[in-house]
Amino acid sequence: MLLVTPLHKYFLNSIFVKTHLSLQQAGKNSSKFGLITVFATLCFYIAIGGIWTFMANLSSFYQINTDFTNLVLASSTLLGILGSLLTSIIGTKFKRNYLIIIGFIFFAISLFLLLNHVTDTTFAISVLIFKFSWMFTVPYILATVASFDYTGKFINSVNLAIGGGLALGPFIAGFIIENTLNYDALITYTALIFLFSFVLIFGANLKK
Q1: Which long-range contacts (CB under 8 A, 24 or more apart) does 61-64 make?
Q2: pLDDT digits over 43-83, tens only?
Q3: Is residue 26 part of a domain?
Q4: Is 72 a member of any domain?
Q5: 100-129, pLDDT tens digit by residue?
Q6: Number of folded domains that form the chain
Q7: Chain centroid, CA 107 distance in Å
Q8: Residue 181, by phi and psi: left (phi above 0), alpha (psi -120 to 50) or beta?
Q9: Using CA atoms, how far apart are residues 49 and 165, in angstroms rounded to an integer?
Q10: Most exposed: 38, 82, 131, 152, by fewest CB within 10 Å?
């Protein structure tokens, strides 16, 4: 026993080296998936910014009463609050990916209601569901970003992604509307961006 005692430092060094390499690898993986989640957030807000900015225009395109449109858009804030409240109540009781799936399913329903001929009823239901989904889903997306962030850099970057998405969204959406002269193309484009964002976020959560 006494003969091997001087060798203990070599065993400890080996353990420290392996631990250091493991932490380095974990850091690389976190950085990679952290960037993916930030990009997913950017895509999410590009989709949000594009369709939400032109909701009133879409209503006008389908000749829905302006006062009714304003009432629906104002009332949607209450659904947004409900979505945020529900998120805070649920917390971490369920797996994050399950809740993200639910949020994006509601987005899909909302966008489907805006396809083809839109009536007062379908417009109102779509807007209310959309705002609820928005406020319900965002906390889980940000929680995914935070789960890969050990330094705070991704949370700082996600603020830029949100602002950039809200700025780019209307620009791209306006271009689509101008060149297609209808809103079905915008709805389809928005659905595809949402789907892409969902795949990135869902995949990142599987790595946790």
Answers
A1: 61/182, 61/183, 62/117, 62/118, 62/119, 62/123, 64/118, 64/119, 64/120, 64/123
A2: 999 999 999 999 999 999 999 999 999 999 999 999 999 99
A3: no
A4: yes
A5: 999 999 999 999 999 988 999 999 999 999
A6: 1
A7: 11
A8: left
A9: 7
A10: 152
Neighbours of 56 (CB within 10 A): 16
Q: Which of 171, 139, 149 is nearest to 36 (CA)?
A: 149
| Residue at 9 is within a domain | no
Count CB atoms within 10 A of the CB of residue 26: 11
CATH of the domain at 197: 1.20.1250.20
Structural domain of 119 = 32-206
Residue with tokens 């830029």: 160
Residue 4 domain flag: no
Give the residue among 190, 148, 142, 196 at the shortest CA–CA distance from 169: 190
Q: How many CB atoms lie under 10 A from the CB of residue 159? A: 11
